[in-house]
Specification:
The chain is an alpha+beta fold. The chain contains five helices and nine strands, in the order H-H-H-E-H-E-E-E-E-E-E-H-E-E.
């Protein structure tokens, strides 16, 4: 990302501007500034390109993430076809992903009150010695669930397998298991 001199809008201000999260006065000030400032224009172009890259990575199924319900509602509102599974704490589900699915989301029900930091550990039966740990997962303590979006491309191309997600509350350096969620994946018929 290009450096912006201190008397220019911050990266955060440019990001808010691009996402339409600025008030009218800030938008007007940044519009005026961008007309005269090449470095800030380049920085904004880089933010836009980064956003496009992130969207492309999600569309291609190359990204795994934890997300909020607000994010899910926003993508559904934009016409993204989402395959969803809901799992009770320590539950399991038989699952698949179809050729028309743009996003795969698992709703993992778990008690989140008094959780300071949340980590998730993912293991796959076809690579049992490998653990993928997601640190400091975003969550809403009132929601009672965490939304996991596995790499759609990996799931779509994978053979029949079992995936397990373990949610951990990490407080003062100690981890406490909140729940385990087991996915018994089968490829889409004919895929």
């Amino acid at each position: 990302m290009s450096a912006i001199p201190s008397n220019h809008p911050s990266i955060d201000a440019l990001l808010d501007y691009w996402l339409n999260d600025s008030d009218a006065a800030a938008i007007e000030a940044i519009d005026e500034h961008l007309m005269q400032c090449e470095p800030c224009g380049q920085a904004l172009d880089e933010l836009v390109a980064l956003g496009e890259g992130v969207r492309a990575a999600f569309r291609s199924g190359a990204v795994s993430a934890m997300a909020s319900d607000a994010f899910l509602k926003r993508v559904v509102g934009r016409g993204v076809h989402v395959r969803e599974y809901r799992l009770a704490r320590n539950g399991s589900v038989n699952c698949t992903v179809g050729p028309g699915d743009d996003l795969l989301v698992a709703h993992l029900e778990t008690p989140l009150q008094d959780v300071e930091r949340l980590d998730a550990v993912v293991t796959l039966s076809f690579a049992p010695d490998v653990q993928h740990r997601l640190h400091d997962v975003p969550f809403d303590s009132q929601a009672g669930e965490v939304l996991w979006m596995p790499k759609l491309g990996l799931v779509r191309d994978a053979p029949a397998h079992t995936a397990e997600v373990t949610l951990l509350s990490v407080d003062a350096g100690a981890a406490r298991e909140l729940g385990r969620y087991t996915f018994h994946h089968r490829p889409w018929p004919g895929h």
